[in-house]
Design a protein that fits this description.
The protein has two domains: 6-173, Peroxisomal Thiolase, Chain A, domain 1; 180-330, Thiolase/Chalcone synthase (Peroxisomal Thiolase, Chain A, domain 1, 3-Layer(aba) Sandwich). Helix 3 crosses helix 4 (94-102) and helix 8 (223-244) runs parallel beside helix 9. By secondary structure, the protein is α/β, with parallel strands linked by helices. It contains eleven helices and 14 strands. It is globular and about 55 Å long. It binds acetyl coenzyme *A.
């Protein structure tokens, strides 16, 4: 398709719940230690949603900040896409719940299930709708409350996840704008889907007393098998967009990857041979917030004045599916 228009990120926002769960708190819950978690993952704190706080609530707060930065109102939106695997309900889409809360209607609103790659997948879809001229302002969110589907008796998973939401407004770029989407790549390898799965609650294994008793409605993950695949797949999607645009790592001002494990981020940075000062990391504060990690990190970096107008930013993620994706932009 020849693009009629170009897309850009015109606003960002994020929200994290107030409650903090740190490594020392986790030591009291499962057989783990601050030392193990820090050295194996780089994490220290994560945020945990309140009992009455769902994905759409967090997404709503993040959205208000993103709209303000973009200088638009909810009525200016013409699509909402939410990347999540822990939405308010199995159905309807959390995007529709958010649409109601924002007081707007009569345009498409849907969720994308791509695990931690959810926001990149959603941004990739939004890019197409901006480029073909169908939409002008799309609200693209990555938001999760993984704490609600985490088994706090399983030390392999419960130390990793936190809750949060990141919102972005993806808009049509004007001719005079320097901000632009340069390229994006998304892919998946379903042969590995069983490595990261919520077994119960769907049609394969409907919810029952037994599934709840056995904690089958919580995240199951074979983390060490995913570890190497994560580095390989993120490297591949980054390499694809850089090569396709005849760019190399020296042209990148900032690399923002999914925050699943500091060792994964460092190994990817080393493989890409990127200056470590260009790699944005906030895993110590929030842990793995799945689809929300990249839009949260992007918003923080923008508001801290690190990422500035015109900077080249490469973003990459991987997650349940196993999915992976990259997004290359001039902010
Ligand atoms: N505290 C103490 N010990 C632990 C803990 C813990 N919290 N968790 C595991 N261990 C133990 C294991 O039982 C094992 O013990 P053993 O040797 O006696 O059997 C030992 O530590 C090593 O376990 P590994 O699983 O091999 O540890 P690893 O170094 O691989 O770290 C981790 C585990 C952090 C999960 C890592 O593999 C990882 O980050 N993987 C990638 C996860 C990921 O990115 N998933 C995709 C995104 S998530 C999404 O899409 C929702």
């Amino acid at each position: 398709m020849i693009a009629k228009y170009e897309a850009k990120i015109s606003g960002t926002g994020h929200y994290v719940p107030k409650k903090i769960l740190n490594n020392f708190d986790l030591e009291k819950i499962v057989d783990t230690s601050d030392e193990w978690i820090r050295t194996r993952t780089g994490m220290f704190e994560r945020r945990i949603a309140a009992e009455d706080e769902a994905v759409s609530d967090m997404a709503y707060h993040a959205t208000l900040d993103a709209l303000e930065m973009a200088g638009i109102k909810p009525k200016d939106l013409d699509m909402i896409i939410v990347g999540t695997i822990s939405g308010d309900h199995p159905f309807p889409a959390t995007a529709c719940v958010l649409q109601k809360r924002l007081g707007i209607k009569n345009f498409p609103a849907f969720d994308i299930s791509a695990g931690c790659t959810g926001w990149i997948y959603a941004a990739n879809v939004a890019k197409q709708y901006i480029e073909n001229g169908i939409a002008k302002n799309i609200l693209v969110i990555g938001a999760e409350t993984l704490s609600k589907i985490t088994n706090y008796k399983d030390r392999n998973t419960c130390v990793l996840f936190g809750d949060g939401a990141g919102a972005t407004i993806i808009s049509r770029a004007e001719k005079k704008d320097i901000s632009r989407f340069i390229d994006s790549e998304i892919t998946a390898d379903g042969t590995y889907y069983e490595l990261l799965v919520q077994h119960a609650g769907g049609s394969r294994m409907p919810a029952s007393h037994e599934t709840v008793d056995k904690n089958l409605h919580t995240v199951y993950m074979e983390g060490n098998k995913i570890f190497k695949l994560a580095i390989k797949s993120m490297y591949s999607v980054c390499d694809t967009v850089l090569k396709r645009n005849k760019m190399d790592v020296k042209s990148i001002d900032w690399l923002i990857t999914h925050q699943a494990n500091l060792r994964i981020i460092e190994a990817l940075g080393k493989k890409m041979k990127i200056d470590e000062n260009k790699v944005i990391v906030n895993i110590e504060k929030y842990g793995n917030t799945s689809a929300a990690t990249i839009p949260i990190a992007l918003d923080e970096a923008v508001r801290e004045g690190k990422v500035r107008k015109g900077d080249i930013v490469l973003m990459a993620s991987f997650g349940a599916g196993l999915t992976s994706g990259s997004l290359l932009i001039r902010f």
